[in-house]
Amino acid sequence: MSENRAFIYADNAATTPLAPEALEAMETFLKEEYANASGLYSLSRKAKNALQDARESIAACIGAKASEIYFTSGGTESDNWAVKGVAFQNWERRPHIVTSKIEHHAVLNSCKALERIGCTVDYLSPDSAGRISPQSLAKAITPNTVLASVMMANNEIGTIQDIASLSQQAHSQGIVFHTDAVQAVGHIPVDVDALGVDLLSASAHKFNGSKGVGFLYIRDGIEISPFFNGGQQERGRRAGTENVAGIVGMATALRFNVEQMNQTTAKLLCIEQTFIDALRAAIPSVVINGDASNHLPGMVSLSIPGASGEGLLHILDLKGCAVSTGAACNSQSTEISHVLSAIGAPESLSKGTLRVSFGRFNEVQDAQRIAELIAKFAKIQD
Ligand SMILES: Cc1ncc(COP(=O)(O)O)c(C=O)c1O
What we know:
Oligomer: single chain
Strand order of the largest sheet: 2-8-7-6-5-3-4
Structural class: alpha/beta
CATH architecture of the largest domain: 3-Layer(aba) Sandwich
Number of helices: 13
Order of helices and strands: EHHEHEHEHEHEHEEHHEEHEHHEH
Bound molecules: pyridoxal-5'-phosphate
Distance between the termini: 31 Å
CATH class of the largest domain: Alpha Beta
Largest sheet: 7 strands, mixed
CATH topology of the largest domain: Aspartate Aminotransferase, domain 2
Number of strands: 12
Radius of gyration: 21 Å
């Protein structure tokens, strides 16, 4: 973070630092207004009102109605609910799902779990920039297809999909459309009507809220089975005592990020350009993965022929910089990234890949420092 130059955090696609304004909003509900929102006394009413305010604020940030926002424990739960909930709702139809090979494992492994119990799934291949075409979606749809799920922005290479065209294609064939917008919400404009989505997943910790809280947007009229069974919270569709402080923090962080989006984007594009220019000048063979013309601001996936991404990550860590080799959720695994193999990156190049994701607290000097370190230590490994 800029105020602590000794340490540079550039792994914002894995998680983001909690925004000071979100922490402040949360504190009241952690310390004083701690009542269960379902109680009948006045302290509970404060929590209940806070939930409603948060719901309205979040809905306004994505062009939805408050009644269409359902709080969850984060992106993984939202994705599981969307995918399994639509499949279970249509179980008697022997459901078929169309998704892509580059989804987050929250979607991919939900689909795999459904396949084990009789669902069928098609996994669409992206082009070399990570784009999924509406034509490939059209071809994969069968009379049994109940859901198409394509992520809005990829968490490893940052490619942004043409969700409006994909959802239009799905709807023209009568199919419900879900997008995992975990990397998009709070970073690029998200309007559920302009995108034409029926279901949309988001996670607070990716946009400077806290971990363990998120939401699923469910368009009014869409039929989906509940995923958690229990009490009547969230209009009987998602049981479990609400994480009031987390939800209030999520709404505050999202509002702030949406209001600041133009300035933050301009800053991140400048940081990113500085980083790429410095890298290219030092390492002409560097490959920048993803869609150069349509990607998440501040996210750079770079591959250096002959280098070890993992080795570089550890050297950068020793030098006080946090970056990732690929998806953070996968950082324990040394397997080749499923996203890089789906876009056709050769194995040798995938092994030399780093994901550097700048966020609102980074500065241009952070990009210069990381590029300098990569240039210095990647050469040693050549
Ligand atoms: C695209 C995408 N979907 C889903 C998730 C899971 O979100 P959470 O960490 O809130 O469970 C992530 C997190 O890395 C992600 O990047």
